[in-house]
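TASK: fixed-backbone design
INPUT:
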């Protein structure tokens, strides 16, 4: 889940220098890591020509902005914005006309990690110890984890460690913290610094619509053809990881080489990303009302959202059938052929 942002909808937002291309064939999208192993379906879909085959040009808007992503949907500059659950619910509470149309990640990237050889095996074991937070935003996830065993954040000491891999590694290795509340990139950093990590995250916190595609409700029908084409290409890219992860790795080595300068770190990043990105639902990207229903009380209790909202007001599966309408066998053949041609 990306860093939480405050949604300010009462102020008109004008963003300049963002190119707008023809809407009949272009999907303008904003997400936190535009081309990355973290969101490999985009890179895979491009490598295999799936977006091009759908007649879609993907226009990635600059993501390093302090402006809430939902604002780009409201002012028409983005067709799709990748939002986390907090951003989504806060936007709905603020009256934004948006719909969640596709669940990009259905497993939480957040977790509670301990040293692989640690004596700590469960959240219960952390009571009375000092737990490290990668950043203060990881406090709410730790609170939720403690809640699962009937405890609260007051039952542990916490210290914010920062995102630097060596600092995290030293804190765990030297026993300054019993565990770390962080996310997938943090486990990669720890492993890269010679600290193997074991996750003790409560099972009930693993299912989460960590990142989703949101669209403006006022343009759902107007842009149906382009949106369905984009999401079908994305689903194909996701599916490749289920049947040919070796091909996915090679596409990423070529597509985002900076993330693969350290081969071991790149592969670990991919393994974690596959675990988050490949849908657990029968229909890829499908919307999980029960998961949202279970998640919102936790967000409310941690203060991340002001009020719960009815999922029926924003979950809209209007594109899901089309996003899954493709020949799986053909995708498997495409991936195998690409890997053979790109050893």
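OUTPUT:
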């Amino acid at each position: 889940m990306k860093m939480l942002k405050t949604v300010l909808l009462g102020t008109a937002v004008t963003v300049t220098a963002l190119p707008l291309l023809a809407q009949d064939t272009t999907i303008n999208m904003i997400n936190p890591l535009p081309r990355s192993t973290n969101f490999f379906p985009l890179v895979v879909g491009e490598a295999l020509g799936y977006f091009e085959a759908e007649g879609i040009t993907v226009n990635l808007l600059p993501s390093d902005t302090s402006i809430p992503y939902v604002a780009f949907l409201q002012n028409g500059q983005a067709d799709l914005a990748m939002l986390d659950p907090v951003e989504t619910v806060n936007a709905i509470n603020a009256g934004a006309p948006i719909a969640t149309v596709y669940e990009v990640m259905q497993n939480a990237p957040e977790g509670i990690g301990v040293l692989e050889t640690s004596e700590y095996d469960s959240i219960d074991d952390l009571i009375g110890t000092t737990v490290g937070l990668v950043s203060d935003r990881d406090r709410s996830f730790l609170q939720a984890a403690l809640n699962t065993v009937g405890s609260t954040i007051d039952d542990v000491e916490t210290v914010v460690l920062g995102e630097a891999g060596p600092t995290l590694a030293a804190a765990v290795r030297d026993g300054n913290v019993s565990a770390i509340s962080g996310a997938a990139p943090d486990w990669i950093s720890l492993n890269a610094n010679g600290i193997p990590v074991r996750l003790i995250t409560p099972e009930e916190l693993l299912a989460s619509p960590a990142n989703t595609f949101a669209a403006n409700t006022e343009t759902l029908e107007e842009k149906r053809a382009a949106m369905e084409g984009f999401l079908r290409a994305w689903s194909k890219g996701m599916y490749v990881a289920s049947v040919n992860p070796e091909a996915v790795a090679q596409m990423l080595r070529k597509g985002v080489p900076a993330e693969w300068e350290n081969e071991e770190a790149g592969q670990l990043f991919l393994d974690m990303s596959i675990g988050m990105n490949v849908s657990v639902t029968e229909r890829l990207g499908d919307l999980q009302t029960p998961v949202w229903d279970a998640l919102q009380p936790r967000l409310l209790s941690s203060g991340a959202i002001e009020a719960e909202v009815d999922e029926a007001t924003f979950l809209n599966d209007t594109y899901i059938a089309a996003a899954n309408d493709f020949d799986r066998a053909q995708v498997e053949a495409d991936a195998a052929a690409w890997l053979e041609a790109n050893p």
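COMMENT: The longest helix spans residues 224-243.
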